[in-house]
Task: structure prediction
Amino acid sequence: MSAGQSMDILWSYFPFHYNNKKISKLLEKMQIGKLPQEEIPKQEISDPYITDPIRSNKLPIIQDKPFQSETYFPNDDSHHLISSNEHFYVHNHFPVPYFSSDEIHKLRIDLGTEKVIEIKLDDLKNSFTCYEQEIKLHCGNKPNQFGIALWKGVKLYDILKFSGLDTQSSTELNSLHLHAQGHDGFEISIPLNECFEKSALVAFEMNGKILPPDHGYPLRLIMTDSEGIKNVKWLYNIRLRKNDCDSPWQILKKPVTDNN
Result:
């Protein structure tokens, strides 16, 4: 958004990152200078959050932009029950991607070979065996950013096998990382074996309904017993590589020292 100009406009949209030491460390390496206040040009930008979905007023809000909230629990007993879609916690890093009603959704699979395939959402639903799993998601150490939901989708294993992955080669599987990318630009990598061990799903339903916009429509990567950051929302691109990805979120998972 800033396109080589002042970063000030960004902090109004991403206040969560303003005092983050890890973010500061990353930006220090990219800094090209400081402008005197009188030389900073005025910037006008439309609100990128204007198309975000309407949310329940019962959600305990942590921050507005990007939207983050805790799960709304009607009572203490409900902590161990399935949370409704509208009361499930939200942790967004950017505005929620907006899709037109007639858009054809596809999942792109790149195994690191010359062949890249795309699978339409309708084909995922109708041409693969679908599974439902009751899975608890949680976000780091935030106390009430967790919730249980019933997720329906296709096993990642089945999708990659269909795409040509040699699932019998343990040597190959042990060396690969899955790079998962969402329509919002978020990307993270996970050891492929971990994805298989945790029965990763590419989900398209949550609690018997189409994924809500805040929870990843049209597709979301879902893994059992995993921190929320690995359950990539708005999933559209999967790549298999020998190394971790170099996205900011992957870097932020590593400890920051004075030397990095």
